[in-house]
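To assess whether the prediction recovers the assembly geometry, we first specified each molecular entity separately, as shown.
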Amino acid sequence: EVQLLESGGDLVQPGGSLRLSCAASGFTFTSYAMSWVRQAPGKGLEWVSSISNSGFSTFYADSVRGRFTISRDNSKNTLYLQMSSLRVDDAAIYYCAKKGTTEGSGYFDYWGQGTLVTVSS
Amino acid sequence: SYELTQPPSVSVSPGQTASITCSGDKLGDEYAYWYQQKPGQSPVVVIYQNNKRPSGVPERFSGSKSGNTATLTISGTQAMDEADYYCQAWDSSTYVFGTGTKVTVL
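The predicted structure of the complete assembly is given in tokenized form:
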């Protein structure tokens, strides 16, 4: 059974930093690209960042580029999101998501339960 | 990146058909995907590659695409289908989600 367990969400002041983690199990972690998707309270889904299965390639939404860093530790089956210079509008539930299996397509077939990031003074 | 536009809300009577559209300038060149999200829960994919249904998703969910518009259709809608639905596209490096549609089963 695929499981994605996020952690690290917290209350942080504007300008602060936070690192999110996502522990993966139930699949061959090293074979799949992984992503972070966020959802502000009462709002829609917003893709944040993705990383290739090797970790060599990373991609970011314009809204977080230069402030967030995605990484992974394949020896620990863990995905990370280092967030810095946090802003009030970064407040959201952050989901870890696994790229779908189907060759040539880009979607998320499994999602974690999410971790809440609150940015407030 | 670009935008995917959905109607904010769709209302449907039990047993009837609900259709949700998703429009985007580049959607004609890409696959469309659809997610269902119920309150307090994580999203779940219900359609991938325009019209394929993952195992476990009821047959009443179907997808189609014509040009720059994708459509999610729920036939014989049930009360349990009341949820938010999001379309999504991917251009090999970035993902885009639609604005979301709240489906209400009256």
